[in-house]
Amino acid sequence: MALPFLGDRKLFEQLPQAALLLDLQGQVLAANTQACRLLATDEKGLLGRHADEATGFSVLAESCPLEEVIQHGRGLHHLEIEGRSEGLPLVVELTPLLGDDGQCVALLESFREAPVIHEMSARLQRKQASLQVEMDRSRALVDSIADGIYTVDTSMRITAFSRSLERMTGYAEEEVLGARCRDVLQTNVCDTDCPLRWTLENEKPIQNCRVSLASRTGEGISAFISSDLLRDAEGQICGCIGIVRDRSEVEKLKQRLGDSLSFSDFVGKSKSMVELFERADNVAATNATVLIQGESGTGKEIMARAIHYRSARRTHPFIRVNCAALTDSLLESELFGHDRGAFTGAIRDKPGRFELADGGTLFLDEIGDTSVALQAKLLRALQEREFERVGGVKTIKTDVRVIAASNKDLRHEVAAGRFREDLYYRLCVVPLHLPPLRERKEDIPLLTEAFIEKFNAREERIGEVSTRAMALMMGYDWPGNVRELENAIEHAYVTSTTGRVERCFLPTVLQGRVIGPGSLEDGSAGEGSEELLQVLERCRWQKSAAAQELGISRTTLWRRMKDSGLI
After folding, report:
1. What's this model's pTM, rounded to 2 decimal places?
2. Mean pLDDT to the nearest integer, 530-551
């Protein structure tokens, strides 16, 4: 049956809710079965009656929404209308039906029971309550962890701050939410190597990045920070989590142990090293300023720490500053601190490293990379033992022993006009020179043994060093010095499949520097040696598998490897 303005009756009956067809005066033209059932009447009892009378909905009588719908051609919703059937709450919707000319010719009034909406809302509230319980439980778990935990969004603004971190730093969570991470924690790596920013940029976690952060009172806190990504329900990166492990107790324990960082950290029996130990031991008992010079990787910081922990200042802080890692303005603020408002971003007073090291030792690493302007301020702090913070007027006194280090020849820098002569002589009260490894090669076997012992502490993997591998290391110049040797031994520790440090397991850069009969690196080996090396690498240096692939015995394989310089 066709309906006026609507068409097929069958479509009208298939509507998912109760519905009335109304003319422009609000008279009922048709009612579907669901409407008759909901209103407890038949269609005949509704036809020709005004909608507000037929349904008992007061909405049609109160504000005359028909005219509004007809005039604007848009539907209108009313929630929880009281129906005549025992005050049944309903959701009513008026929809205009438009003719070919775009004008409203009739209206469709649909309605459904509001309890359905209430039930959906109740279920949602129950789910939200359950979620809140889980969130509270998770938060309680996080707050019970001794390590401090905080999260940031992709703009590096803090979104959560655990109770442990509140106790550690002195900040309350409500104070720091929305603040930039760097403005709160003020770590020494915020400007250079922030682990959370690196994780966000590279999408990889960071474990145990050593940092120094500042508490609310300006007190330095030695800590490890680990970081990992946070993702939303769709798997998109939405921020980062930082885990702060306080190292203060460990540092205090080291101070109480005193000699725990002593010259025993150096391995060497060469004449130059024995003389260096004696001189350093003598200067450790004084408050004299020390200048340590030597190439990168010779152990300048270890020597500075050893002097500190052998001195009477061992119970006070050892503070390190890498002068090459910061710009002049940042380095000045790092050394001397700044007052609130000294520059953009200086939202609070911050003590400098000279203040934090009061009573202890300040280690100025790579001091040769400082500018002449900053050197003048350093000179005053060394001579007068006083300074002013950046943007401050108050003179601050400090009792600090300075140990400086540089991989540059500071005499040459003075001659070139890049380093102040007066500062050089102020620092060079007691000069110590750490010899490069190539000048004390007799210490290489001892150092190698010490590094193998260090790595075997993780898991026993290496039992000995082959003669050819030791010859290779003794013949190398080691431009990276002791640090490069340690890395080479670790490389062999990781890659060795024989339980030995052999030539083939050392970094290729070492092998390329040694020229000798039968070595693959000098190009004297024939094609057979190259083929042998390829087979060994393909078989992951498993000699039985390599011998089987080559069709020879293990004895013959061993002899060919020896002739080719592979063992």
Report:
1. 0.48
2. 76
